[in-house]
Structure formats: structure tokens, C-alpha cells
Amino acid sequence: MSQKLKGKVCIVTGGGHGFGEAMARRFAEEGAQVVIADINPTTGSKVALEINGLHGEKTALFQEANVTSQASWAKLLEASLKEFGKVDVVVNNAGTTYPKKASHTVTEEEYDKVIGVNMKSIFLSVAVVVPYFLEQKAGTILNISSVGGIRVKNGLVWYGGTKAFVNKITEGLASEYGHSGIRVNAVCPILGYTDLAQSFMGVDDTPENRTKFEASFPRGEALKLNTSTGYVANAAVYLCSDDAAFVSGICLPVDGAATVYAAGVGK
Ligand SMILES: NC(=O)c1ccc[n+]([C@@H]2O[C@H](COP(=O)([O-])OP(=O)(O)OC[C@H]3O[C@@H](n4cnc5c(N)ncnc54)[C@H](O)[C@@H]3O)[C@@H](O)[C@H]2O)c1
Fold first, then answer.
1. Which of 94, 139, 159, 227 has the smallest number of CB atoms closer than 10 Å to its CB?
2. What is the number of domains present in the chain?
3. Domain CATH for 63
4. Under a CB-based contact definition with an 8 Å cutoff, are residues 137 and 216 in contact?
């Protein structure tokens, strides 16, 4: 591996599973020290243990955290600084949804949860981490958004709205804090076969339905070579590395051209 993140300390929220786990593992391969912040101590500590087994003690730290709590963010920053002495990168990845369904049938509880975990979490990360970045005069924030924030899907309207929010505040924060050495970007993945996949698909997550899904957009077949989580991790490595020092305020679709797909003659 190219060690593109050597010397960087990166917090990855929701690092115990799915896209977050894939990013935590790739970041460690690229030389980073990673703090896996997750509400689930079983999966989060397992991922940290496995990363340390592969890359050496003190590569990964698990910190139990609830991204919707300011006190939890404060503890997360404190634990990261205690263990690794600094923080360079925060990946706001932890997110949730409700099962795809008619928007008027989404319950108030489901609505509050998706707003809290997908939106308030980033507000709190900025409230807690940006003062530290301002003092350090450097820092990188990467928000994990969704193609649903670019083109909102039927049955996932409130979810898509949270990700449209993520895209807009990514631009706004990049503009507001760029002069202070802080970069802010977002990645907009298409469906990843994670714990949330079934909720997004609206059908059973079976091999047949995956094949149908992969045939429904231009580069879907690339999922046979890697996984959606793998491609997102690759994009995250770039955006969090110094190679992207001049890149800020972008919301990068990692979606096999699904968002721009306009079926014409032929396929
Ligand atoms: N899976 C997809 O198809 C897909 C597509 C586009 C975008 N996304 C986005 O990717 C991100 C990660 O989703 P995923 O599919 O990997 O989900 P996942 O459910 O597989 O993993 C999410 C992780 O976040 C943790 N988490 C949940 N709530 C938390 C909280 N309040 N505090 C701390 N940790 C919490 C969970 O314990 C879990 O480990 C989300 O922001 C999601 O919206 C997912």
C-alpha cells in the first residue's frame, strides 16, 4: 500500500460496520491511526482488535460513542487526543434510515431518528471538533452522504432530505472554514451491501435482486470487481489525504454513473 495517510489520526464514526468499517480498515492500510467510534461496542471493538492484529498495537482505538450526543463527541475527542496526541481527520459516517415506504407512513419516531443520526451528528461534530481544528490551523472533515441527497428516491424522501442537507452544509462549511486550514468534503455512495441495504432496496437482499440492481445503472458491473464499500473507502483515502489538499467543498458521487444515467437508445 502507498501509505497515503501515514502520520494522520482519523476518527471514523460508525466504524464498526459497513462503509465505516471499510474506511477504518483501508485507512489503517494507508498508514493512519484510526479511532473507531461506534454505538455498538461488540462490532466496534472487534474491528479495532483486528486492525491492531494486522498493523500493530496502537493503530486503532475503539471508543463507544453516540453521535447524537454532544457529551459523547467531547469524550471521543478527549479519548483520541489522549491515545494518539492529535486528530487530523473526522469522517462523519454513522447514519441510519427507515425501511423504504410511502413518506406519509414514516413514523415520528423514525423521522426523529433519521434527522438526529444523519444531521444533528454533523452539527455536533463541528461544535466539538472545529474549535480544536481552528487551534491546530488544520483539519479535514469527510461526510458520508448518499446519491439519495442528489436525486431523492420515492419511499426514501426524508432520508434523502437528510443527505441533501449533508451536501449543502458540506459546501457551506468548506467555504466558511477554508481560510482556517480546514477542508470539508462529502462522498455520495450508491447502495452498499451493508446492514442498511435491505431498507434501501425495498425488496429482499437476495443474489437475484443484487444482479437486477447492478444491471440497472451504467457501471453496476464494477461491483463484481470490488464492493461499494471498497470503492467508497478508496475515495475517502484520497479526500482525506494530502493529495486532495486543493479539493474542498465537493460532494463526490461514488455510484457507477447512476446519478447521471439517462437511458437513451440501446441500454
Ligand atoms: N448502505 C447503503 O446502501 C448506503 C448508501 C448510501 C449512503 N449510505 C450511508 O453510509 C453511512 C454508513 O451506512 P452503512 O450502510 O455502512 O450502515 P451500517 O448500518 O452497516 O453501519 C452503520 C454503523 O453506524 C453505527 N451507528 C449507528 N447509529 C449510531 C450512533 N448514533 N452513534 C454512533 N454509531 C452509530 C452502527 O452501529 C454501525 O456500526 C450512512 O451515513 C448511510 O446513510 C449507505
1. 227
2. 1
3. 3.40.50.720
4. no
